Amino acid sequence: MLDIFKYGDEVLREKTDRVEVFDDALALLVDAMFDTMIEADGVGLAAPQVGVSKRLFVVDTRSAGERIAFINPEIIETSDDSVPYEEGCLSVPGVYHDVMRPSHITIRAQDVRGKGFTLKAGGLLARVIQHENDHLDGRLFIDRLDDREREKVIAQYEKKEKGRRKKKKA
Ligand code: NI
């Protein structure tokens, strides 16, 4: 299992580099990311969350055909609407908030062997893709909330983290 970096860790805010080499090391990283995500009960995980500042993320919505690795992804189309959906993040564990985003997207990316593909998505898959893609630009879901909402969610998170640290010591 890989360590998941948390809110406050600098790697989550860094600009990521394109993946240039599609080798066994990349395939192993992607496999480890899938395992780590499933273990943590997540539906998506981006490379910066495991300390790797590269443009890739994995998604598994637990629906058939929706276990996908996206390398060097680019969202090339978004629907004109903006819909709420409750999001959480393995890097900001324990807190959730509605975030407004387009309901449908089209994304272009490469697979783990470097082969290009294009995918149209709606529903949960579109939501997870947009959330993970944000991670590649150093952005977290809380950045998309207004100031008051964000402060509230961060305060909630910090309170929970304090509780977790106390428990570990006891
Ligand atoms: Ni996240």
List the helices and strands and how they pair.
Elements: H1 24-39, E1 44-46, E2 56-60, E3 67-78, E4 83-87, E5 97-101, E6 105-110, E7 116-121, H2 123-135, H3 147-169
Antiparallel strand pairs: 1-2, 2-3, 3-6, 4-5, 6-7
Concise account of the structure shown:
The chain has three helices and seven strands. By secondary structure, the protein is an alpha+beta fold.
Describe this structure in words.
A five-stranded antiparallel beta sheet has the order 1-2-3-6-7, with helices on both faces. By secondary structure, it is of the alpha+beta class. The two termini are 25 Å apart. Helix content is 31%, strand content 25%. The protein has one domain (10-169): Peptide deformylase (Peptide Deformylase, Alpha-Beta Complex), CATH 3.90.45.10. It has helices spanning 24-39, 123-135, 147-169, and strands spanning 44-46, 56-60, 67-78, 83-87, 97-101, 105-110, 116-121. The chain is globular. Strand 6 (105-110) and strand 7 form a beta hairpin. Bound molecules: nickel (II) ion. The site of nickel (II) ion has 5 residues, from helix 2.
What's the count of strands?
7
Helix count, DSSP H or I runs of 4 or more residues = 3
> What is the count of distinct domains?
1
Main structural class: alpha+beta
CATH superfamily: Peptide deformylase
> Which architecture name does CATH use?
Alpha-Beta Complex
Rounded mean pLDDT is 96
End-to-end Cα distance, whole Å, is 25 Å
Helix/strand order, N-terminal first: HEEEEEEEHH
**Low-confidence runs:** none
What is the C-level CATH assignment? Alpha Beta
Identify the bound ligands. nickel (II) ion
Main pleated sheet: 5 strands, antiparallel
CATH fold title: Peptide Deformylase
* Helix coverage percent: 25-40%
